[in-house]
Amino acid sequence: PFGIERLAEMMLELQRKGAHNINFVTPTHFMPHILAALPHAVERGLRVPLVYNTSGYERVEALRLLEGVVDLWLPDSKYADNAVARRLSGFRNYVEHNRAALREIYRQVGEDLVVDENAIAQRGLIIRHMVLPDGLAGTREVLRWIADELSPRVHVSLMDQYFPAYQAVGDPVLGRKITWEEYQEALAALEAAGLDNGWVQTTLEEEELVEDCAV
């Protein structure tokens, strides 16, 4: 049966297979199990970094339990407007909870992203933000808050990969992917905020090139 010992062994199996890290995705409801399994894994040789991959909708009290445990944080900052967050994702008071969570994570690991000799992240914070159609994510405000309230040195991943699925299909706004112009506006907001560290995507640019070639 699956249990604490099995969870510890799974981490070690991933390490033996060459995994660069142990990536816990949306794991907060399993936090007690993770914290119970880690000592067993460490005692048996677990050495790779631990990644906490989350929506950023977390209680600060829970995040404090992970101080000194998580090496690399990958939280989202999805929205700048509570009404939009509630309508699209069911989050209550998302902005306040998300910003409090980001402040706590930043307090734990700071602004610098530590990488190894192969440029693989070992410790720090990377905030993800996905651009939505018609400016629904509040991208400019999200990025400005990160720069002003955390640090312009924080690494940001600005994503263009929104794809309508399930209940978004047929929606007058969410029923389409973002446009190249919308992503350009997001890139301009990133530059205006002074956020120079991180990553941007070129998916839309590649799609436009394919369309041009097909004409």
Can you describe this structure?
The longest helix has 16 residues, at 94-109. The chain contains eight helices and seven strands. Strands 1, 2, 3, 4, 5, 6 and 7 form a seven-stranded mixed sheet that branches. It is α/β, with parallel strands linked by helices and 215 residues long.
The parts where pLDDT drops under 50 for at least 5 residues are: none
Please state the CA-atom Rg, rounded to the nearest Å. 19 Å
- Largest sheet features: 7 strands, mixed
Helix-strand category = alpha/beta
Overall number of strands? 7
Taken in chain order, the helices and strands follow as: HEHEHEHHEEHEHEH
The average pLDDT value, as a whole number, equals 93
Enumerate how many helices there are, as a single number: 8
Quick one: overall form?
globular
Helix content: 40-55%
Cα end-to-end separation: 57 Å
Q: In what range is the share of β-strand residues?
A: 15-25%
